[in-house]
Amino acid sequence: MNKKTIKYVTEIIRCPDFEFGRFRMGELVHEAYCSRLKKNGYEVEKDVHKVYDNYLLLGRVDAINDEEVVEIKTGKKPQLIYLIQLGIYMNMCDRDRGRLVMIASNINEFSLEEPLSDQAILALIKDERKPKWGWECKKCRKRLSCPYISATRKRS
Ligand code: SF4
Hey, which of 140, 152, 156 would you mutate to test ligand 1's pocket, going by the most ligand atoms within 8 Å of its Cβ? Predict the structure, then answer.
């Protein structure tokens, strides 16, 4: 078998060098919701992998059972990137149902009924742009020292 190039789900959905600040409160909320799902029979924080052509894609789903994949995020609005991540996990885990849980002052849920296709995932894997999205650099801790963006963009 050919040696596969390893990629991680988190690095194909955004700039691979992106670095968020750590939000302890968000992590605690995430953990609490995961343990609630675990009590309801879900497997949580499950490592998953799948081969796409010459790539081995690795990831970790927040929660999964026989029917669905669940992705948990903090914040009010369901960003496109979250739905893409969920669609990737649905493909990797062979599930047709996905649920994005957004936790802020209340909990909102959004469902996805079709996984991302193999072709779409492969396109994301091969997309080497840094950044991949217009908003990323503003939220990235590496912005001031980043070699990929202009001095003007660092200050904006
Ligand atoms: S500043 Fe932008 S391009 Fe640089 S590492 Fe962060 S997200 Fe990537």
Answer: 140
Count of CB atoms within 10 A of residue 88's CB?
27
Of 80, 81, 71, whose CA–CA distance to 109 is shortest?
Answer: 71
Per-residue pLDDT of the chain (156 residues; tens, 9 = 90+): 579 999 999 999 999 999 886 666 778 888 899 999 999 999 999 999 999 999 999 999 999 999 999 999 988 889 999 999 999 999 999 999 999 999 988 999 999 999 999 999 999 999 999 999 988 998 899 999 999 988 776 766
Q: Is the CB of 146 under 6 A from ligand 1?
A: yes
- C-beta of 14 in contact with ligand 1 (< 6 A): no
CATH architecture of 5-155: Alpha-Beta Complex (3.90)
